[in-house]
Amino acid sequence: MNSCLASSSHIAAVFLFHCLVIFFLTISNISSSYGGNNETDYQALLKFKSMITNDPYRVLTSWNDSFHFCDWGGVSCGKHHKRVTRVELISKGLEGSLSPHVGNLTFLREFLLLNNSFEGVIPHKLGHLSRLRILNLSYNKFSGEIPTNLSRCSNLRSNKLVGSIPKEISFLSKLNTLRLDANCLTGGIPPFLGNITSMEVFSANTNPLGGNIPHTIGQLKLLRKIQCSECNLYGTIPHSIYNLSLLTHFALPVNRLTGSLPLAFGAMLPRLVFLQLRINQLTGVLPPSISNCSELVIFEMAFNSFSGKVSIDFANLRDIYEIGSHYLHTMASYLHT
Ligand SMILES: *[C@@H]1O[C@H](CO)[C@@H](O)[C@H](O)[C@H]1NC(C)=O
Ligand SMILES: *[C@@H]1O[C@H](CO)[C@@H](O)[C@H](O)[C@H]1NC(C)=O
Ligand SMILES: *[C@@H]1O[C@H](CO)[C@@H](O)[C@H](O)[C@H]1NC(C)=O
Ligand SMILES: *[C@@H]1O[C@H](CO)[C@@H](O)[C@H](O)[C@H]1NC(C)=O
Ligand SMILES: *[C@@H]1O[C@H](CO)[C@@H](O)[C@H](O)[C@H]1NC(C)=O
Ligand SMILES: *[C@@H]1O[C@H](CO)[C@@H](O)[C@H](O)[C@H]1NC(C)=O
Ligand SMILES: *[C@@H]1O[C@H](CO)[C@@H](O)[C@H](O)[C@H]1NC(C)=O
Ligand SMILES: *[C@@H]1O[C@H](CO)[C@@H](O)[C@H](O)[C@H]1NC(C)=O
Ligand SMILES: *[C@@H]1O[C@H](CO)[C@@H](O)[C@H](O)[C@H]1NC(C)=O
Ligand SMILES: *[C@@H]1O[C@H](CO)[C@@H](O)[C@H](O)[C@H]1NC(C)=O
């Protein structure tokens, strides 16, 4: 009887011990999966600062030991875990390069450095920041290639990036915004972009990309904006694009696109606000169905080889703000009635 009790309490003790072991193992698993600690963040921020060669507005002087790093200018932390979640240094005139140590800020969700003078490469380690949701490095002087593993939202406008759009970008199943405008990218609009079905905005204006628009673009059912002005694109506009009924911005001006627009254009893209195809080599008629794009605001179609009468009913397009009168005037002389 006693031995039974003894053994059952022994079993209970062993059981409790096992629970505790599992509990502590779980805790240690959790903390190790968090990757690093506040000391890592502190070191990473100091390294970031050490690579800044000019700070004209002295925004980084507050980055000193008189304050906890969570109170440094432009730095925000999580309330409880005190890890860096956001770095915002917009238009601060900062010069220098970007330390790869920022790849150690494992809790970083938003990283905004737009409009500074960062140069050199964008560290590949940024691609390891799995919590990063907003990355805006636009309007800097970054050069080299686009890192392979960018996160959900990548804003890399106006830098000096070269090479082609990396294939690894198509593994990012949650990327929704890719802005690459005003860089030196080549290699065309890659067909694998069609695999990023979360994409809502693709903008690559003013890059010497070249090539055709891949028909896989039609797989981006959530796409709202496609903007590729001055991208040296040629060939026809793939018909699959007219499946993207959520499109509000359809802007491919100043390229060498050929072929004609489908008659049902307006019925297929009813939400268009921006329609910009000026300066291409498009032929055929301007589809009258454009009259049904009732939200159209910007309409630029001049300098093409359209023929026939313009029978778009502009009276229907109440919100239209800019027809591009200069272009329309010129267009009139291009039309053969
Ligand atoms: C700890 O993590 C490892 C690997 O991720 C896993 O195999 C193990 O079961 C975890 N242990 C506990 C107690 O959660
Ligand atoms: C990190 O956290 C520990 C314990 O909470 C604290 O003692 C230490 O001062 C912190 N270090 C920094 C750099 O914030
Ligand atoms: C630390 O930052 C504060 C706030 O910007 C500044 O007043 C102070 O001079 C700095 N201390 C040092 C040692 O730079
Ligand atoms: C960019 O930053 C500079 C300060 O360095 C500022 O004068 C300028 O207005 C900013 N440009 C934009 C477009 O915000
Ligand atoms: C942080 O990043 C640097 C450079 O990428 C690396 O050498 C270092 O080991 C990382 N870890 C810590 C804890 O600083
Ligand atoms: C910076 O990027 C974010 C995310 O792409 C975007 O929401 C924001 O509008 C951008 N800011 C500027 C000034 O471009
Ligand atoms: C990209 O991310 C994946 C998954 O997080 C990782 O396995 C791979 O090593 C990363 N590649 C680079 C070049 O950072
Ligand atoms: C798109 O993804 C599928 C499945 O992962 C793959 O088989 C295909 O090669 C990818 N397409 C492109 C153009 O990379
Ligand atoms: C448009 O979408 C439909 C249904 O999703 C599909 O059957 C059709 O092949 C697509 N058309 C083009 C040109 O991609
Ligand atoms: C506009 O849409 C209506 C309804 O779908 C249709 O009857 C009409 O023919 C369309 N107008 C043009 C010019 O395509």
TrEMBL record:
Q: Which Pfam families match?
A: LRR_1, LRRNT_2
EC number(s): the record gives 2.7.11.1
Cross-referenced SUPFAM superfamilies, in alphabetical order?
Answer: L domain-like (SSF52058)
Q: Where in the cell is it found?
A: Membrane
Per the database record, which ranges form the Leucine-rich repeat-containing N-terminal plant-type domain? 39-77
User: Which InterPro entries does the protein's record reference?
Assistant: Leu-rich_rpt (IPR001611), LRR_dom_sf (IPR032675), LRR_N_plant-typ (IPR013210), StomDev_PlantInt_Reg (IPR052941)
A GO cellular component annotated for this chain's UniProt record is: membrane
Superkingdom per UniProt: Eukaryota
Q: Which GO terms describe its molecular function?
A: protein serine/threonine kinase activity
Keywords in alphabetical order: Glycoprotein, Kinase, Leucine-rich repeat, Membrane, Repeat, Serine/threonine-protein kinase, Signal, Transferase
Q: What is this protein called?
A: Non-specific serine/threonine protein kinase
Q: Which organism is it from?
A: Helianthus annuus
